[in-house]
Amino acid sequence: MVPLDEDLNSRPTTKGTDVDRYVGGRIRERRVMLGLSQQQMAHLIGVTYQQAHKYERGINRISAGRLFEIARVLRVPVSYFFDGLEGNGSEDDLSIRQRMCLELARNFTQIPNERHREALSQLARVLAAK
C-alpha cells in the first residue's frame, strides 16, 4: 500500500517487508506440512532453489502471478498466505507458533512407523477437540 503523501513516480523497492516475511513464512509452513523440500518446491514453481529460499525468508518479493502458482502447487487459496496477518496475536506469538508447526511437521514426516504416525495424529485430534 502506498501512503498518500508518497511520490507515486518513485521507483518501487524490491526489498522485503514485514508482509513479505509473513507470506514467506506461510509458504514455508505449508510446504513443510506437505513434506516438500525447498528444492522440490522450487522445481514445481519454476525457480531456482536460491530464489525459493529468498521467497520463504521474505528477502525477495513475490509477484502476483508467482504467488498464484505457489498457491496452486501448495493446494491452498492465495488468501491462505495472508490469513492472520492482521489477527489478534502478536508477531512473536505467530512466529513461535510457526516454528512449532514446522518442527512438528518435520518430526512427523520422519516417523517411519505408520501406526505411530496414525496414533500421533489421533492424539492431536483429541487434544484439539478439548
What is the residue-averaged pLDDT? 83
Query: If you compute it from the alpha carbons, what radius of gyration comes out, rounded to the nearest whole angstrom?
Result: 17 Å
Largest sheet: none
The number of helical runs is 6
Assign the structural class, choosing from mainly alpha, mainly beta, alpha/beta, alpha+beta, or little secondary structure: mainly alpha
Overview of this protein structure:
- The protein is mainly α.
- It has 6 helices and no strands.
- The chain has helices spanning 18-33, 38-45, 49-57, 64-74, 91-109, 114-129.
- Helix 2 packs across helix 3.
- The longest helix has 19 residues, at 91-109.
- It is globular.
- 16% of the residues are buried.
- The model is unreliable at 1-7 (pLDDT under 50).
List keywords for this structure.
single chain, 130 residues, mainly alpha, 434 Repressor (Amino-terminal Domain), disordered N terminus
Explain briefly what this protein structure is:
The protein is mainly alpha-helical and 130 residues long. It has helices spanning 18-33, 38-45, 49-57, 64-74, 91-109, 114-129.
